Amino acid sequence: MAFVVFWRWRLFTDAAFKTTNVGQTYLVHKSYSTSGGTERTSIVSSARQNVVSERHGSVVAVAINRPQVRNAVDRETARRLLDELKTFDSDVQLSVAVLHGKGGNFCAGYDLKELANHTAALKLEQDVTKSPGPMGPSRLQLSKPLIAAVSGYAVAGGLELALLADLRVVEESAIMGVFCRRFGVPLIDGGTVRLPRLIGLSRALDLILTGPPVGAQEALAFGLANRVVPDGQGLQVALELAEQISSFPQLCLRGDRASAIYSSYDAPSFSKAMQYEFDHGVPVAQSEAVAGAARFSSGAGRGGKFS
């Protein structure tokens, strides 16, 4: 929830930012074509909802739908985000999720107005294993890949949501950063945990201690962004990437992903990490690798081709 006070700063410096009409109830039927030419069809849920989702085959796109406050997250939105991502993780028909924001911004952190309207002391569960984070899903350890499609602002708590993802597709004009630094609001949704792991302690401390805006190209150089794309194309590229990932043998992919995460966060030693990789890799080799080797022997994938 680290972005609460940033909104006070924005009110002083950018008081004229425009609202978007999100009061209408409507259903949208839209198609999405991948680079390979396949067409996917999805139904978009009511615009009254703070979080909406669209299914594209084995991929689900989850959107924060509060553009009038640059997708700042309130308690209800945090709860809905958590529910959507938990549903994704337990749905056997879904392989990859894409998290994004409606209306040109990824997420501007926690909603200042909601916090200002609660004068009582903020009560948070002290044990992080027993409750969701203030931003919702920030304490989840997903078993399947999540991609963040970042446009506009992804700052403070919004940056922490982007850090939850495995990959970040960032539009050219996007801004990321720890904007809460100047107001004394701590990162309590995984920012100090994930950021050093992703970009290294030295660069992470620079961002955490000084709170500068980070543009897309700098984020790419840091390793904070995995792809930089033209404005307006972040979601499309993220969906294409998600579909590519979902086309691979999933047991192997998820096993390798889990091993990489274990070695980065949980392994007490190099040998323990190697043992985890081996123990979890051998069963997958028996179930998927044999069939994959047979496909390769028949001519599939020669010369590094993916299809």
Task: Give the structure's gist in a few sentences.
The protein is of the alpha/beta class and 307 residues long. Helices cover 39% and strands 17% of the residues. Helix 5 packs across helix 6 and helix 9 (250-266) runs antiparallel to helix 10 (270-297).
Report on this structure.
- The chain is an alpha/beta fold.
- Helices cover 39% and strands 17% of the residues.
- The strands form 3 sheets. The chain has a 6-stranded mixed sheet, with helices on both faces.
- β1 and β2 form a beta hairpin.
- α4 packs across α5 and α9 (250-266) packs antiparallel against α10 (270-297).
- It is globular and about 60 Å long.
- The protein starts with 5 loop residues before the first helix and ends in a 10-residue tail after the last helix.
Shape: globular
Secondary structure class reads alpha/beta
Residue fraction in strands = 15-25%
Query: What is the helix/strand order?
Result: HEEEEHEHEEHEEHHEHEHHH
Distance between the termini: 43 Å
**Overall pLDDT confidence:** 82
Task: Give, in spatial order, the strands making up the sheet with the most strands.
Answer: 3-4-5-6-8-11
